[in-house]
Design a protein that fits this description.
The protein is about 40% helix and about 15% strand. The protein has 11 helices and 12 strands. It has helices at about 15-20, 25-35, 50-70, 75-85, 110-120, 135-150, 175-195, 195-205, 235-245, 270-275, 300-310, and strands at about 1-5, 5-10, 40, 45-50, 100, 105, 125-130, 155-160, 210, 225-230, 250-255, 285-290. Strand 5 and strand 6 (about 105) form a beta hairpin. It is globular and about 65 Å long.
Length: about 325
Amino acid sequence: MTSGPHLACEFDDNAILQDVVGPQNQNLLRLEQRLGVALNLHGNVVSISGPEEQSLKAQTALMALYKRATAGQAVESGDVDAAARLSADTADNEDLTIRTRKKHVSPRTPGQAAYLRALNDHELVFALGPAGTGKTYLAVAKAVAMKIAGHVDRIVLSRPAVEAGERLGFLPGDLREKVDPYLRPLYDALFEMMPGDQVARNLESGDIEVAPLAFMRGRTLSNAFVILDEAQNTTPVQMKMFLTRLGERSRMVVTGDLSQVDLPVGAKSGLEDALNVLKGVKGVARMAFTSADVVRHDLVTRIVEAYDAHGSTAPRPAR
């Protein structure tokens, strides 16, 4: 890499560089728009023009994308956006990639990078924020990677079936048919990380368990990676019950969005209660995502920002 009046990034493999810049240099154009710089490709060199701070960010982003392409990973528009966001992260050289059977998952925002560090360093992590920020997706990826590496023996994924009031007997079908609609997002995340036949075998053997929150009572979950999703819809009693299931050599992640509580009007969220009770407790980490961490369609980010600017969601109807 050389420097002069403008920064210049020189790359060893021109074929890999073509994967980085994309068809008709689309990825370079996207990076220009995100960082406010001018990028020009000359053979195996990308020259960078613009304000010094932004040019340094572009340099960091290009090197990160080249590293990704060198590892055989695709470089798509979302990856370019992620590199632009992470270019200002002082710890961007740290390898936080989660490696599973089907894919490698890397943080796409500084918030996601901080979340992965918290998952590495703490036994209990609360992850708060809007949809599309990767709260559950990254937690499931981390759980699968830890099981593959032998750090845990099993994965337990849970959600409160709040629409059914946990009274599943009133729903049609057998037990699995009753609870699957509430747990489908957790299954979807699993199938992103593992081949379908492996998911099926692990579910059959009990090495992976996907169950409603009511099924956690009276258990101790040892040597496990345990995730409670949609935790804003727990009551304080349910949350205490769940948190006290944590056993030896286990990790626990609790995800939720306090702006999307579906409990009856006036009922206190167990997630909000736990955050107050456990403030300052050793071994507990809290991650708060914002609209800046939304990594779905650009429109989702704008929708979240619009609701944030409005100040609140629509009032919940009485039940």
